Amino acid sequence: MGKLYYDRPYVKTFEAIVTDCRPGKDCFFEVFLDRTAFYPEGGGQPADMGSLGEASVLDVKERLEGIVHITDKPLKAGSRVNGIIDWERRFCLMQNHSGEHLLSGIVHKHYGLDNVGFHMGKDEVTVDFNGILTMEEIEAVEAEVNELIWQDIPVLESYPSKEELSLIDYRSKKELTGQVRLIEFPGGDVCACCGTHVMTTGEIGILKVTGMIHYKGGVRLTMLCGRMALKDYCKKQKTVSGISVLLSAKPDHLLEAVDRLKEEGQKKDGRLGQLSKELLERKAGDYPELDAPLLVFERDLSPVQLRQFCTMLYEGKKGSVVLTCSGDEGFFQYALGSSQEDMRALSKTLNGRLNGRGGGSTLMAQGTFQALQEDIRKAFEEES
Questions:
Q1: What are all long-range contacts of 71-78, with beta carbons under 8 Å and residues at least 24 apart?
Q2: N or C terminus of the chain: which is more exposed, having fewer CB within 10 Å?
Q3: The domain containing residue 209 runs over which residues?
Q4: What is the pLDDT of residues 264-286, one digit of tens each?
């Protein structure tokens, strides 16, 4: 089968003869051609999509018997069909694949790290390296890669002999056998690769590293190139502009504005927490001391407030065992506390009767009941 994606990587349409068509999985069909411009999934690059005649090409895979096109309609063996590549998608993949080669090559060149994982997703590209990089080092790599992009250097493809290959310093993720295809970015990278690439680095446009996390003893970088990088920039620019309006701050001063807002929020949260605690203390003070179980229903208390209120009540000797509940009919958050009895056993018993979940320590248990208020009251009176 002729592989046009290597011979003519920029071909967008082509004609081919259907050599076979078989029923596939999930009501799809497997189509074989005498030649194809559809790139099959491989080397971290997703398969091309597009159409063959009236059929949509949903996936492409390479098997021992040849390249198979997964289509939504059957095609007649022996017929001639017109193939159309989803070129915008393919070109985005080419931009990002070529950009990844440059990124990995420069990282390897300066820091000796290997690319041990590569995935081209719908919204981003991830690259895994087997060592640690600082943000300063990543920024330096990004700057050097973009300089090579803007120099518009040629992207070279070669098929060296075994003897020639032994003399070339190139990157490869695995031991290779048979004919090896090398992709070279002069001054940037030489790597064994089966994917499709741009013809000159200028077509990549730009490479932007969008994130970094520590991953399996190394780092995972997320990156975008070309059209995808532009779309990402436009999306983030809209977000920045919207936040700028909401905070009445210029885009360059958003960080300071958010820091001020966070500090103000923390002060307000602290003040509200203090006021809430004072209110609960006053409510707790209204209850007389009692050497008997106490059940209290309060509205709109958070789990933290429920625990605080319960602690205030049992430490203030308002009940030998205190159960505080907050919620709506049918679902309640609860806190159960006592300085005299083990709350773990009582919590387990109440959970069993009231379709509850939760647990805790000897002094305090916390969780939820899926039960009516009268059922909670009855169960607490009978079990405590």
A1: 71/28, 71/29, 71/30, 71/31, 72/28, 72/29, 73/29, 74/21, 74/23, 74/29, 74/31, 75/18, 75/21, 75/29, 75/31, 76/18, 76/21, 77/18, 77/19, 77/20, 77/21, 78/17, 78/18
A2: N
A3: 91-234
A4: 999 999 999 899 999 999 999 99
